[in-house]
C-alpha cells in the first residue's frame, strides 16, 4: 500500500520519554506527508487525534481521545500496555516488529552469549588481579545455548547464534521450525530445555503465563556454572533467587538488561557482583528510519478500512 491510496484524516499523537520526537516526526512525515503529527504536549483538541504512537504514556492518556482508531506501541514489548484500563474498546493495538530492531537485539544477544561462551568475564576478573590466566577455549558446538522465545526477536537471535557454530536450542509456545536450531514447544518441554543450557537467553514477552516463569526451582535445573542472559523483562525471573544463585555459584554469570524494578535501585547487590554485567534496558530500540514504514502502512490500512498488521492479542498478552 502507498500513501496515494488513502489520505489519513485526523492527527497522530506521539508520546515517549525515551525517543526523539523530531526524528520520529521526520521519518513518519516522509511517508505520510498529509498527516498531522503532534507531540502529546501540543494537542489542542483531543477529538482530532485518530492515531497514537506511544511508549508508556501516563494513566488516562488514551481515554482523553474519543476518536482514536489505532494505538501503536512504540516498541516490541506490550506488557505495560495490555493491562491498562484506559484503552478504548474496539481500537486495535499494534506493536513494532522492525527487522532493524531484531538485528540490533541479535547483536546484543550475540555479544552477551559469546562473551560467556568465551569465558570473557573470567578473563576480565583475572585482568583486574593482573593474572595471565590461560583457559583453553571450548569448541563453539560444545556450548549449548537455549533461547526462550522464538518470536520476531528470539528467532533472529537464535539464527545468528547458530551461525556462530554454537549448539542452539529454542523454546516457544507453539512449534517453530528454524534451520539448525533444536526447537521445542510447550510448558512440558521447558525443564528439559533448561537442563541442557550452558547459556540461557530469555527473549519471552511478559504475560500472565510467563511472569515468574524462571523461579528458583527452574533456575536450579540449569547445569552448575551456567550463564543467564535476560533481555526480555525482569519479572520473568525471580530476581532474589537469581541473585542467591549467582552468589552461590550455581549460576556462573549473568548479563542483565532488564530488572524487576527499573532503574535498578542503587543498593541492589547485583550492582556489586563481579560475575554480573548490567545494562540499563537498551538491548534494542525502535529505529525510526526503518520502523516508520510499518507504522505508515498500518495507518493507511486503518484509514482505508482494513485491519492493521502486527496486532497485539490482548487475550494472550503479546
Ligand atoms: P514476539 O511476540 O514476536 O515473540 C514472543 C515469543 O515468545 C514467541 O515465540 C512466543 O511463542 C513465545 N511465548 C510467548 N508466551 C509463551 C509461553 N507462555 N510459553 C512459551 N513461549 C511463549 O516477541 P518479540 O520477539 O518481538 O519480543 C520479545 C520480548 O522482548 C518483548 O515482549 C519484550 O518484552 C522484549 N524486548 C526487550 C527489549 C530490550 O531492549 N531489552 C527491546 C524489545 C523487546 P509463539 O511463537 O508460539 O507465539
UniProtKB/TrEMBL annotation:
<dbReference type="InterPro" id="IPR006140">
    <property type="entry name" value="D-isomer_DH_NAD-bd"/>
</dbReference>
<dbReference type="InterPro" id="IPR036291">
    <property type="entry name" value="NAD(P)-bd_dom_sf"/>
</dbReference>
<dbReference type="GO" id="GO:0030267">
    <property type="term" value="F:glyoxylate reductase (NADPH) activity"/>
</dbReference>
<keyword id="KW-0520">NAD</keyword>
<dbReference type="Pfam" id="PF02826">
    <property type="entry name" value="2-Hacid_dh_C"/>
</dbReference>
<feature type="domain" description="D-isomer specific 2-hydroxyacid dehydrogenase NAD-binding">
    <location>
        <begin position="112"/>
        <end position="283"/>
    </location>
</feature>
<keyword id="KW-0560">Oxidoreductase</keyword>
<protein>
    <submittedName>
        <fullName>Glyoxylate/hydroxypyruvate reductase A</fullName>
        <ecNumber>1.1.1.79</ecNumber>
    </submittedName>
</protein>
